[in-house]
TrEMBL record:
Name of the protein described by the UniProt record: tRNA (N(6)-L-threonylcarbamoyladenosine(37)-C(2))-methylthiotransferase MtaB
A matching Pfam family: Radical_SAM
Family matches, as InterPro entries: Elp3/MiaA/NifB-like_rSAM, Methylthiotransferase, Methylthiotransferase_CS, Methylthiotransferase_N, Methylthiotransferase_N_sf, rSAM, rSAM_horseshoe, rSAM_sf
Keyword presence, Iron: yes
Amino acid sequence: MSVTLLTFGCRLNAHESDAMEHLARLGQMRDEETIIVNTCTVTAEAERQARQTIRRAHRENPAARIIVTGCASERAADAWAALPGVSRVIPNTEKTLPATWGLPDEAGQAPPPSRYIRALLQVQQGCDNDCTFCVIPAGRGQSTSMPPGEIIPKARALAEAGHCEIVLTGVDIASWQQKDMGLGQLCRHLLDEVPEIARLRLSSIDPMILTPDTGDKALWGLIADEPRFMPHLHLSLQAGSDLILKRMKRRHNTADVAGLIAQVRHLRPDTGFGADVIAGFPTETDALFQETYDFLAEQAIPFLHVFPYSERPGTPAARMPAMPKATRQERAARLRALGQTIRDRFLNRFVGQEKTVLMESPTTGHTPEFAAFTLPQAQPSHRGRLERIRITAVQDGMLMAEIP
């Protein structure tokens, strides 16, 4: 049986696609080609691309069995089931269960092999926040935290399989909670219990977990003194205007974010910050957009992930006065251009330095700060190796490097 995974959206979807591929190959699914499409509903464009992919897959291979799952299909299962070639729609809550793929429960106890050098480890699912623009809670349900008793063995297995770096992922990992433990304590526990983990990294986090006065103290401790905890934080920021943040129903304001960035940089000056930002949110006037632009410039966040606002049916934001789509696109382009300027300035500080990096191919990878680099084709390393490199230049948004 041939199994093909087509994945859209977040790191959690990528992690779940690994699990589905593993289970589908183990399961008794008859001798036929199976295409699994793991959808995303964050934007209308993500849904459009998934539908287009399904139609193309059916045209190119009409005999293949197409299975659809993910957040988009969770919200409109009948519509996805009606697409040509789709034989089954699997709910998000069932897609990584062994029984879904005709297997006993024990088949899901061991972590699946990861196709990624930087292994993803899910620690949390769902979201309890009610941001006005977001439909993720409808696709993922309420927040639930995996217990350490499940997380530790999976982390150990990934490390023993040769993964030098593990990335904790989920829908809202900042909400991870078990009894008296928070996310920072989980990270510390992981590093203590699995010393084979060479590097630990977080996926996107809610800024509220790191507000200077009330944030996760254990997480602050890791930032301050744990070399295996990578100096890279990707913030679910969304805007740099307090009024827009309020209308988004976010829990942080710009002062919270500015404070945490300043404190992290005090502890680790070269930390690489990323941020998700929505351009052209409903009611965003020119002046409010400028507040976001100026805030991002002032905070010098080098790795911006910018989305033009996309209406999601049924959300409060979809009922707010909308900005023209051309305006959203233009503002997104301005923010991306700003991000490139900040990124290049950030990258230039590393020229002349040496770094220990994780090789994701023989010639490419990322530094601990998550800056992309490339080696000369004539001087390759090995995929999966921790390599010492020297940064020589910046070119096209990437670090040029060599092995000393």
